[in-house]
Amino acid sequence: MAVKKFCVIGLGYFGLNLALRLSESGAEVLAIDIDQEKVNLIADRVTHAVCMDTTDLTTLKSMGIEEMDAAIVAIGEGFESSLMTSALLQEIGVKNIYNRVISSVHERLLKLMGISHLLVPEADAAAKLANMLLIPGIIDSLELSEEYGIFEILAPAVFVGKTLIE
């Protein structure tokens, strides 16, 4: 199986942790941020780490991102850079663009641009915490749709050591 290749743009808390998780899972990761300090923090833990302005088409084109499995735009401050970066990624032919949403206006504009992979980590974390608070004994959950989900819960003591039939 071929090694997956990803580009993570924006190394705030979300982007940094995503890049590290992908790298630790064996993927090749190109991590990009405009802040050299953030790039330095991750440089020895990913395949490539670059300090650059991703709103510059010429520089962005030179990175080979269109050959990667996906680009994740995790820019968290000022959605103008996020929108411009996403537009340039579309222009250079990146097939899979995931974008972190930071406001309802940002989300609407991304949808108008045709970006379908929208990430809202704060909303996902809030939903998960709400489930944990509302459902006693819940360990973890995965929402599949508004109607279906998978929940890992603590088994009652009387179930331990029993088969499904029992």
End-to-end C-alpha gap? 41 Å
What is the helix content? 25-40%
Name the shape in a single word. Answer: elongated
- What class, by secondary structure content? alpha/beta
Enumerate the spans where pLDDT stays under 50 for 5 or more consecutive residues. Answer: none
Major sheet: order of its strands?
3-2-1-4-5-6
Average of pLDDT: 91
The helix count comes to 6
Major beta-sheet overview: 6 strands, parallel
Order of secondary-structure elements? EHEHEHEHEHEHEE
Strand proportion, as a percent range, falls in: 15-25%
Count every beta strand, where a strand is a DSSP E run of 2 or more residues. 8
User: Over the alpha carbons, how many angstroms does the gyration radius reach?
Assistant: 19 Å
Could you walk me through the main structural features you see in this protein, from its secondary elements to its overall organization?
With 166 residues, this protein is α/β, with parallel strands linked by helices. 36% of the residues lie in helices and 22% in strands. The chain has helices at 13-24, 36-42, 57-61, 79-91, 104-112, 121-134; strands at 5-9, 28-33, 48-51, 70-73, 97-100, 117-119, 138-143, 149-153. A 6-stranded parallel β-sheet has the order 3-2-1-4-5-6, with helices on both faces. It has a two-stranded antiparallel sheet with strand order 7-8.
